[in-house]
Amino acid sequence: MERGLTTIRDWIIGDRVFQIPDYQRNYSWGEKQWEDLWDDLFYLNSDRRHYFGTLIINKTSREIKSELKSFQVYELIDGQQRVVTTLILIREIILQLASMGDKSIKKEQLNDLEKDYLKYNNVYKLMLLGTDEKFFKQHIIDNKTYPVDVLTPSQRKLLEAKKFFKNYFEKYSREYDRSTFREFLLNLKQKIDNMEIIIYEVSGETDAILIFETVNDRGKPLTNLEKSKSFLMHTIYQSANPDELKNYLSQINESFFDIFKCFEGITDTEHGEGLKEDDIQRYHYIIYEAAELKEVSHQYLIYLKEMVRNLYRENPISSLDYAMEYSKDLEKAFFALKEIVIYNKRNKLGEILKRIFALGRIANFLPLLIATWIRFVEEKEKVLGILNLIEVMAFRVYAIGKRRADTGEGRLNLLAYNIHNGKIEYDEVIDGLENLISNYENDEDFERDLKSENFHERVEGRDKKFLFFEYEKFLRKQSKEPLDIELEDILRLEYEIEHIWASEPSKLDLSEKLLEIHSRCKNKLGNLTIAPKSWNSGWGNIPFKDKKKGMKGYSNSSLRVQRELSNFRLWGEKQIEERENQIIEFALDRWRI
C-alpha cells in the first residue's frame, strides 16, 4: 500500500483487513465526536471533500484466507476511533437502504457494499481488541440482537454510536419522502467515500509501538492509564525474549483489561462515580513508589517512564520484571478500590466505610485505604482498627478542627507506602495514625473547637448532622431503644439543624441582658439539634416552652435528641452549657484517640 494522500474508499476497498494492535486502547469516542463527524459530513458541500486526517498503519506478515481470496493484515496504529465510527455509520447506511425496499437499489449492490466495507464471507474488514472483536462483529456489523448486559465501557460506546446514527436516520426518514431520503443516503455514502486521508506506513512492531506512544504523548486524548499501557507494552517488546514475548504481552493485556473492568465497576457506584482513572493510578503510585513525595505522585507517569528506562539501560530484564510487577500491582489496587466502594454488607466494616464516605474527605485517605485493603483484607479486625482511626481523623481534624484539605497528606501517604511495601506492622500503623491525629487535633483542641461560640457557623451542616446522628445512636443505645433511622436519611434535605433557643430573638421577648446572652449562646453546640424539615419550619422562632407542647412538641418527636429536651423545664445559658458538656463528653469518647 502506497503512502500519501488517498480517499477512504480507496484505502478500505481491496484485499486487505485491519487489526487494532494489543497496545492500543479500546473504543472510547462519545456523543461530541459522533456529532462532529455527522456535522462535518451533513453540512459538507457535494463538490468538496472532508479531510479525515492521518492514519498510521503497519503491514504484518499475516494473511487471512477466504475461499480463493487472501487478505493482507495491517495493524491500525493511529486512527482507530475515526475508522470504527465510520464503519458503524456505513453499516447504518446499508441497513437503511435495505429497509426501504427500493427496487432501484438491488440486493446484489448492497451485498457488494458489505463485502467492500464490512466483511467478505467470514473475513471482517476491521478486528478490534479482545472481547470487543467478537462484540463488534456480531452486534455492530452483523446487526444481531444486543446482549442484555454490556460487559465493558467500550462495548457500551459501540452500541451507543450505532444508536446515535440510527436515530438521525430515523429522524430524516420521517422528514423526507422516499426518493429524497434515498438520495440523502447515497449522497452521504459518497461523501464518506471521498473523505481524504494521509496514509503513513511504518515497518515493524517496535517502530509501531514507539510511534503510537509518541503520537499519543503529543496531544491525543489518551488518559495516563492508556499511555501507561502502551509504554509498558513497548518496554516488553524491547526487553523480552522473542519466545516469551506473546506470553508477556498476554499478561499485560489481561491485567489492563481487568483494570478497565474494575474502573467501570468503581464509577458505577455512588462512592466512586467521581473518581478518574488517572487519580486511582496516582494513588497506586503513592503506595507503590512515590511515598510522601507529593510532586512525584502528581507526575507519576513521568517518573514511571524514567524508572523503567533507567532499569533498561542497566539491564533489560530488570525493566521487563518491573513492567510486569507494576502492572500486576496496579491491577490489585484497582480491584481493592472496587471492593471498597461496592462493599455494602450490614456489618461493622460496612458501617464504618459508610461513615467514612459520608464525611466526604476521602481523597486524602484513598492511598491508605487501598494499601490497608490489599495488606490486611484477610484480617478484618486490623482493617477495622485502621478504618476507625481514619474516621476519627476525618471527623476531628477536618470536620471539627477545620484543617486544610491537604493537612497530613504527606504522612498519610508515607504510612500507605510503608504498609503496602511491608515496612511496618499493624501496631506501628495504629501508633502512626494516633500520633498524626494528636498532632493536629488532640483532646484539648477537639474540646475547644466543640465549645466554640460560633459552632453553628463554623462547622458545615453535613458534619453537624453526622455528629447528631451518632449522638442519636448513643442515646438510643442508652435507653435500649431500637434505631429505626439511617445516616443517609439524616443527611438528606428532609432533615435540618434546629436552634433550640430560636436564632431570631424578635419573638422571644428578651431583656437587654438576655439578648446579650442569647447572642453569645445561640450558635453553640448545646443549642443545636436535628429536626425534620417540616417540624423545623412549622415551629419557626417560637419560644422553647411552646416547642415542648402539643402532639408535635419535643416530647412526641421520633428523634431521641429532641425528646430529651422535654426533660428541661427552662432553656437558657445554663441549660445550653449543660447539654453542650454532655455532647462533648460523648464526642470525646466516640472519636477517641
Task: Describe the structure in your own words.
There is one protein chain. The longest helix is centred in the middle third of the chain and has 27 residues, at 316-342. A hairpin with a 2-residue loop joins strand 5 and strand 6 (123-124). It is built from 28 helices and 10 strands. Helix content is 61%, strand content 10%. The strands form 3 sheets. A 6-stranded mixed sheet has the order 1-8-3-4-2-7. The relative contact order is 0.06. The chain is elongated. Helix 9 packs antiparallel against helix 10 (242-267) and helix 9 (224-239) packs antiparallel against helix 14. The termini are far apart.
Q: Helix and strand layout, with pairings?
A:
Blueprint: E1 4-7, H1 8-12, E2 16-19, H2 31-42, E3 51-66, E4 69-78, H3 80-100, H4 107-117, E5 119-120, E6 123-124, E7 126-127, H5 130-141, H6 153-175, H7 178-193, E8 196-202, H8 205-216, H9 224-239, H10 242-267, H11 277-290, H12 294-297, H13 300-314, H14 316-342, H15 348-359, H16 366-376, H17 380-400, H18 409-420, H19 426-441, H20 443-450, H21 455-458, H22 461-478, H23 487-491, E9 495-499, H24 512-521, E10 528-532, H25 533-539, H26 544-547, H27 560-563, H28 573-590
Parallel strand pairs: 2-4, 2-7, 3-8
Antiparallel strand pairs: 1-8, 3-4, 5-6, 9-10
Helix pairs in contact: 3-4, 3-6, 3-7, 5-6, 8-9, 9-10, 9-13, 9-14, 10-14, 11-14, 11-16, 11-18, 13-14, 14-16, 15-17, 16-17, 16-18, 17-19, 18-19, 22-28
